[in-house]
Amino acid sequence: MSEALEKVSQEIEKLQDEMVNTLVELIKIPAISPDYGYEGEYDKAQKLLEMIKDWPFDKVEVYNAPDERAKNGVRPSILAYYYGEKGEESPRLWILTHIDVVPPGDLSKWTVTEPFKPVVKDGKVYGRGSEDNGQSLVASLYAVRAMMNLGIRPKRTVILAFVSDEETGSKYGVEWLMREHPELFRKDDLVLVPDGGNEEGTFIEVAEKSILWLRVKVRGKQVHASMPDKGLNAHRVALDFAYHLDRLLHEKYGERDELFEPAESTFEPTMVHGPADSPNIAPGEHEVVFDCRILPRYSIDDILADAERLAEEVKEKYRKEFDGKVLPEIEFEVLQRMDAPAPTDPNSEIVKLLREALRRLRGKEAKVGGIGGGTFAAYFRKLGIPAVVWATLDETAHQPNEYAWIKNLVEDAKVMAALALL
């Protein structure tokens, strides 16, 4: 281990209590998308700015994506720069974390604490957003704080990006930043997205599947359930369509790619909705949502075309006329779409640096692979900028009793510092 890295690692260990306190304070502030009926990230971003206002960053910038649904009409993202040894001419390392979190879900399943009343217990910090993405956000902050405390300028300028709207598609986060401020990004930048990994911190993600969230809307004719022939039960039509779509997609797009975990495309029906509020109503409307994570070899357009063809078959099967109107109707709404970009080269500089950091600090060899989840890394790959996803996580994200290990806060901060120093 280099002398600078050893000193920085020791300094990070001394900062452990401060790191825990910072994570606790951030968890207390819900930062949930207006898509879920909440106010967004404004308050949490302001708290973060207040926390770092006296830190000797060389530059701190705030970019506000307009969103009239959010508090004060904006979805903020923060960029904090700590220059390398050659000042603004230094090569650059981005570490991107997100400040938004998902809703708490079923409160009755939170048995350790309430979602936004963090608790420190048994070496863990419990609370919504503790692991996703608070752990990595705080680790990135204190990787830089340790260098600041020691007066060390790294080999690479570190750009800490704290970004909104990761959990609901990045329309007001990274996607907006890249569209509205392309000058921020350079082809020779290195990018770490610490928002996925495994318990050992030995998995480096270099590829992602395509993402398709598809809502299927079926319209029939509502009727009393005792007289089904007088109407058209949209629920039955939707069940038939969803069953056959699920089967079709798994059979036609069923190849495996061992780079990914899981190795095949996944097509999961996740949400259903219907207006019937009584057992004796045969509903006239029904919705079902599919979450599809698709191997890059397959085309989302082909999948949508197959869904359209199947819809025509199902419509013909149940076809009825009511007052000159032909039913059922089956419509599609794409809630989210992200076509998978080319993977990051496993021999790229950022991959080599991360593998070397893990060897030096943990004595471990990392595995390189792909995942089904979507992260910020995909947006950088689309620009031709190599990006990796890595962190040390138990994968409690989006679950009740979500937690972050304190040891992971500290040890991941050391790895992030190493990427800037080596």
Overview of this protein structure:
The chain has 422 residues and is α/β, with parallel strands linked by helices. It has 2 domains: 3-208 and 340-421, 3-Layer(aba) Sandwich (Aminopeptidase); 210-338, Alpha-Beta Plaits, CATH 3.30.70. The chain has helices at residues 3-14, 16-27, 42-52, 130-150, 174-180, 234-252, 300-317, 349-362, 377-382, 406-421; strands at residues 59-66, 74-82, 92-98, 119-121, 124-126, 157-163, 190-193, 203-208, 210-219, 223-224, 260-261, 266-273, 281-282, 285-294, 320-322, 325-327, 329-338, 367-371, 387-389, 403-405. Strands 1-2-6-3-7-19 form a 6-stranded mixed beta sheet, sandwiched between helices. Strands 12-14-9-17 form a 4-stranded antiparallel beta sheet, covered by helices on one side. A hairpin with a 7-residue loop joins strand 1 (59-66) and strand 2. Helix 2 (16-27) packs across helix 4 (130-150), helix 4 packs across helix 10 (406-421) and helix 8 crosses helix 10. The N and C termini lie close together (10 Å). Belongs to the peptidase M20A family. InterPro entries: ArgE/DapE (IPR010182), Bact_exopeptidase_dim_dom (IPR036264), Peptidase_M20 (IPR002933), Peptidase_M20_dimer (IPR011650), Peptidase_M20A (IPR050072). Residues 206-318 form the Peptidase M20 dimerisation domain. GO terms for molecular function: hydrolase activity; metal ion binding; transaminase activity.
Short description:
This protein has 422 residues and is of the alpha/beta class. The chain has helices at 3-14, 16-27, 42-52, 130-150, 174-180, 234-252, 300-317, 349-362, 377-382, 406-421, and strands at 59-66, 74-82, 92-98, 119-121, 124-126, 157-163, 190-193, 203-208, 210-219, 223-224, 260-261, 266-273, 281-282, 285-294, 320-322, 325-327, 329-338, 367-371, 387-389, 403-405.
